[in-house]
Amino acid sequence: MIALAHRSHPLWLAYLVHRLSGLGLALFLPVHFYMLAMVLTDPEGFDSFGLWTQNPLVKMAEFGLVFLLAAHFFGGLRLLALEMLPWSGRQKTLAAATVAGAFLVAATFLLRAI
Amino acid sequence: MLDGPQTLSVSIWRGTGTTGAFQSFEVPRQGSQTVLDVVSWIQQNLDPTLTYRYACRVGMCGSCAMMVNGVPRWTCRTHVNKVDQGGALTIGPLRNLPVIKDLAADMDPFFEKWVKAEGLFHPARTRHEEVARVDPASEARRTADRAIECINCSVCYAACDTVAGNPDYLGPAALNRAWSVVNDERDAGRAEVLAAVSVSGGCHNCHSQGSCTRHCPNELSPLDSIAGLKRETARSFWRKGR
Ligand code: HEM
Ligand code: SF4
Ligand code: SF4
Ligand code: FES
């Protein structure tokens, strides 16, 4: 894969994930707003859509969307930190590890609560 | 005796301008052989019309950079046994620049962008005044230090996909130089530099892919320099240019 050789490093992959997740979110958001609008304009339609979301396949897709949002959100925070904070690489690694750790703990508590 | 294959299968780009094709050569392997040694051996023993560029052979002049197996590298300091793929080498002219002939890329767009980015010194004093003293331990001087040892090799420029996608993008090397000028206490053109790197095609076009930093042979970090410019231009925007 000679055409890709100069790109095979973590920051480039992070860029790729950020662009793909950003594009995925951009495609999903109009659908999302349309569904929310249905609560007002077509409550029955919305209810039948609610049933459709019980489908395991749709549940999997929902997981995908949450993953996209998480990937893009943390990717975005990573970029903002990388560009806007004049910290050393080590400080940034520590800060990222702290945020990831906090997120893990918080998510575990959240999952228990619901 | 060397481990592995005793001959190298070398594929070299031949052509002028936008046309050309890869040509194959067999080159004997030698100990501590560099990629530049391979190219020179072909030119001296197989085909004297092969065009390429080098001067210092010790990683100082920045003229020998080429694409080696898809990665931009300074060929005089790249050992064959670090980069060959089972004895195979594919060598082409630097990416993102026009080709003059064979392995010689046209560096004009690269250097024109240095000037566009105001990557040059704007003196504040004349020769009749005393030389300015810069404290080597000062924050600005240490920041400038980290960006200063650029040899203008264009490896970062060839590695950058933003340059590939946007011909107006000033690119990592020019922006890196602009950042060392911004941190030069003697420089009187700070506002001009910040204005020059804020235009469309300037530092804010960088997507922080970091291929520049990954491949810079002198281990500079244009990525960090560009982030510095993003911060300084943003700061000067909120201060209304001050
Ligand atoms: C939820 C809706 C969102 C959508 C549809 C979206 C979409 C996008 C897209 C398409 C890009 C361009 C990627 C690129 O230039 O490579 C982008 C970039 C970016 N996004 Fe988002 N985004 C969303 C939310 C967020 C959030 C919540 C954050 C912050 C945490 C964020 C931070 C960023 C940043 C910093 C960039 C710049 C990336 C770069 O320079 O390459 N975005 N976004
Ligand atoms: S960090 Fe910016 S300048 Fe460096 S390779 Fe990426 S886009 Fe280009
Ligand atoms: S920043 Fe590094 S890769 Fe770019 S031109 Fe200077 S020395 Fe070469
Ligand atoms: S020949 Fe001067 S840097 Fe390689």
UniProtKB/TrEMBL annotation, chain A:
Keywords for the protein's UniProt record, in alphabetical order: Heme, Iron, Membrane, Metal-binding, Transmembrane, Transmembrane helix
Subcellular location: Membrane
Keyword DNA repair tagged: no
Keyword tRNA processing: no
Ranges in a coiled coil: none
Cofactor: heme
UniProt main location, coarse: membrane
Transmembrane segments: 12-40, 60-81, 93-111
Pfam families: Sdh_cyt
Record InterPro entries: SdhC_prok, SQR/QFR_C/D, Succ_DH_cytb556, SuccDH_FuR_B_TM-su
PANTHER family: SUCCINATE DEHYDROGENASE 2 MEMBRANE SUBUNIT SDHC, SUCCINATE DEHYDROGENASE HYDROPHOBIC MEMBRANE ANCHOR SUBUNIT
Oligomer status and interactors: Part of an enzyme complex containing four subunits: a flavoprotein, an iron-sulfur protein, plus two membrane-anchoring proteins, SdhC and SdhD. The complex can form homotrimers.
Function summary: Membrane-anchoring subunit of succinate dehydrogenase (SDH).
Name of the protein this chain belongs to: Succinate dehydrogenase cytochrome b556 subunit
From TrEMBL, chain B:
Entries under PROSITE patterns matching the protein: 2FE2S_FER_1 (PS00197), 2FE2S_FER_2 (PS51085)
Pathway(s) per entry: Carbohydrate metabolism; tricarboxylic acid cycle; fumarate from succinate (bacterial route): step 1/1
Coiled coil: none
Claim: Signal is one of the keywords in the record: no
EC class of the enzyme, as a word: oxidoreductase
N-terminal signal peptide: none
Xref: Pfam families: Fer2_3 (PF13085), Fer4_17 (PF13534)
Domain of life: Bacteria
EC number(s) given by UniProt: 1.3.5.1
Keywords on record: 4Fe-4S, Iron, Iron-sulfur, Metal-binding, Oxidoreductase
2Fe-2S ferredoxin-type domain sequence ranges: 8-97
Assembly and oligomerization: Part of an enzyme complex containing four subunits: a flavoprotein, an iron-sulfur, cytochrome b-556, and a hydrophobic anchor protein.
Name of this chain's protein: Succinate dehydrogenase iron-sulfur subunit
Annotated source species: Cereibacter johrii
